[in-house]
Amino acid sequence: MNIYQGNKFKTLNSQVSRPFIVYYVSLVGKTFYFLKRILELVTTKVQGHEKEDSFPLKVKNLSKEMGLWIEEAERRIFSLGTGDRISPIAVKIMQIGFSKILYAANELGADLEECKPYIVFAPDCTCTFNKIRVERGFSYGALIKGDFSGMISTSNAMPNACGYTIAELTTQRTDVSLKNHLIQKQKEIGKDHLQQLGKGNHFSAVYCVKDSITGEDTMRRMINVHSSGKLGTQFLYDLSWLSEIEGYHKVETPHGPVELLEGEAKKQYLDKYNEGDKTNANYRFEVLGEILGEGTFKILEEITHQGLSRDGRYHRLGVQVHDGLIPIAFNSEEGLILAETKPNLSKELLETWKYKEQVEELGLEKELSQIDFSPHGGGYEFLYPVEKFTIHLDKRGIGYLEAELKPEKKPKIQKKVTYFRELKEYMCFRRKLPLMREVFRADLIKHIYDLEPLIQIYPLVSIVGGTL
Predict the structure, then answer these.
(1) Does residue 464 sit within a domain?
(2) 3-state secondary structure at position 386
(3) Omega within 30 of 0 (cis) for the link into 345
(4) What torsion, rounded to 10 degrees, do the Cα atoms 389, 158, 64, 104 define?
(5) Domain membership of residue 4 as a residue range
(6) Do 304 and 282 share a structural domain?
(7) Does residue 209 form part of some domain?
(8) Is residue 214 part of a domain?
(9) Rg of the chain on CA atoms, in Å
(10) Tens digit of each residue's pLDDT (9 = 90 or more) over 321-370
(11) pLDDT at position 31, please?
(12) Contacts of residue 296, Cβ cutoff 8 Å, sequence gap at least 6
């Protein structure tokens, strides 16, 4: 079993009794931890932000063996999340998945203090509509460092090489002519493309490019395609094909299995992922050709925001780490921001952040000053204030969720669901203003252009959870 001693983790045979001093140290450590948490809760504002968890947010049926691992996961997760509805829930869910990874890495002999695993949520900290990802204990809108001395855990949150392709139209035509062309193309897009463009928050749209200072029309027109393409999930979601390969490790935790890869298994997995990343980029290029016609556009940026980087050590789970122009997309009425990422996290943020002590204790100051990330969109949000939210665990992971929402002047909404798609009628996309307020507060980007929607090609309107 696993015990926690002075921020060091050791694996002991389950039949070996824990000496009294270990219980004493553990009790003192836990007492100090809870006193610290109480002090944090009575502090209502830090750096101009209200504290999260403004409603009862509970995890039930947590194994005693996982209790301290949840605490360690909490210690290593940081958030710039916008709002006080979905953001704290997303962080709590991620603590579950990350605690399982830390448990498994420890079982395999990793030194957590040396490896320095962590998670940082961008301002679009949110939930996922993927049922398996929720069950495993992962949310969305975060950068995950899941490297343990060459052994990677980043496959567990299910990277699928989803991304954006931004292109500029090179054929001059009036907006009326362009709209008429696109309306016709809406009727001709192939079924396979529609299945991707109408899935989740995937879409394609054409924009007028506005100067970010003057707001004047630059007369440039751009198109964005957001999808994960044709990449098969059997290779990246189910790793049973690697089970007999050297370097594959599957560790059973009290709340579901975790897989870690090294050696040949890691190499084969990354080869398959990189192949899928290229396939998805080619797919988005194919969609552009079908919509606009060959030779009528030039690719400006190709960005994966749901995938792996640095030899699989990092997982961009809905965030962008990219040199060049980056899009931050909103619903079909609010359009898109085109920006460049600034070096981040800034020294000013780290010095005033509510996590300052945690960052220093973990020795992450330098690492977090070089993550250079940005959100990729607004993310999902609840329509109504959350009164209570409970996460119920079982032997597989998250078994089900209970949500209580309170609309103004309407009866309370109480729902028991297995994942967030079953709550989509009570959800929306975050608005541009609150998200960008946090982006600029954290000084993550340099604003280059505003992209005003000319026409959303598919889906015809922004629908939470997609049209499928």
Answers:
(1) no
(2) strand
(3) yes
(4) -160
(5) 1-42
(6) yes
(7) no
(8) no
(9) 23
(10) 999 999 999 999 999 999 999 999 999 999 999 999 999 999 999 999 99
(11) 46
(12) 169, 170, 171
Under a CB-based contact definition with an 8 Å cutoff, are residues 208 and 456 in contact? no
Calculate helix-pair angle for 263-292, 175-186, nearest 10 degrees: 120
- In single-letter form, the type of residue at position 50 comes to E
Identify the sign of the CA torsion 10, 15, 16, 20: positive
**Are 11 and 52 in the same domain?**
no
Full-model pTM: 0.89
- Specify if 372 maps to a domain: yes
Both 158 and 124 in a single domain?
yes
Task: Report the alpha-carbon distance of residue 104 to residue 292 in Å, rounded.
Answer: 48
> Could you report the per-residue pLDDT of 232-268, keeping only the tens digit for each?
556 788 899 999 999 999 999 999 999 999 999 999 9
Specify the 3-state DSSP secondary structure of 214: coil
Name the nearest CA neighbour of 343 among 364, 324, 370, 366: 370
Residue 69: both structure tokens together: 């691992």
- What is each CA distance from 42 to 47, 53, 178, in whole angstroms? 15, 12, 57
**Total of domains in the chain:** 2
The token pair that represents 102 in the structure block: 């830390």
pLDDT in tens, 284-296: 999 999 999 999 9
Cβ proximity of 71 and 36 under 8 Å: no
Same domain, 117 and 16: no
Cross-strand bridge partners of residue 340: 325, 446
